[in-house]
Amino acid sequence: MPTTKTKPRTAKGKTKAPAKGNTQLEKFFIDALKDIYWAEKALSKALPKMQKAATTDELKSAIEDHLAQTKEHIVRVEEAFSLLGKKAQGKKCEAMEGLIKEGESILEETEKGTMTRDVAIIAAAQKIEHYEIATYGTLVTLANTMGNSDLAELLVETLQEEKDTDSHLTAIAENGINWEAEQEDDEQEED
């Protein structure tokens, strides 16, 4: 897990001074920040649809919490741009667009009011979480490499929240929804 307290290391593991003014790395970082900014904004529009389609109150509540958190993540990314002296702007994130489309298609492919639909929503949401975890993990590591610990600390907070959301979704699935969805299959076969 990336931390904000370690010094950057070379490929051979030796510590070295932070890379200050690495314009290629900074350009890549800003591009990745634009990408996740667009992704978070797109997700904030998609989550209400997933929440409305969810069957259980527990999943609806988890999605509502994640929507509030996503709005905080948008503000945090805007703060990250500000720390870099840049205007916050997004760049279309093809990955998030695809993940959202996949989530929308599972709503069409699953029966309304079933636990199977909730299983599918959780699976789609966790794919999104894993994408966000990978992105924020990379951004934290790069901020540290660039010697910007304030930026790393800001983004590590979002990274941890994404991990916590993923764990919460797993707990919801494992605490009954998956088993109840399996029972739906049995009941349909008996009819």
Please summarize what this structure is.
By secondary structure, the chain is mainly α. Helices cover 77% and strands 0% of the residues. The chain is built from five helices and no strands.
CATH superfamily: Ferritin, core subunit, four-helix bundle
Q: By helix and strand content, what is the structural category?
A: mainly alpha
Strand content: under 5%
What is the helical fraction, as a range of percent? Answer: over 70%
Question: How would you summarize the topology of this molecule?
Answer:
Blueprint: H1 23-53, H2 57-83, H3 94-109, H4 115-145, H5 149-190
How would you describe this structure in keywords?
191 residues; 0% strand; mainly alpha; disordered N terminus
Describe the model.
The chain contains five helices and no strands. The protein is mainly alpha-helical. It has a single domain, classed as Ferritin, core subunit, four-helix bundle (Ferritin, Up-down Bundle), CATH 1.20.1260.10. Helix 2 packs antiparallel against helix 5. It starts with 22 loop residues before the first helix and ends with a helix.
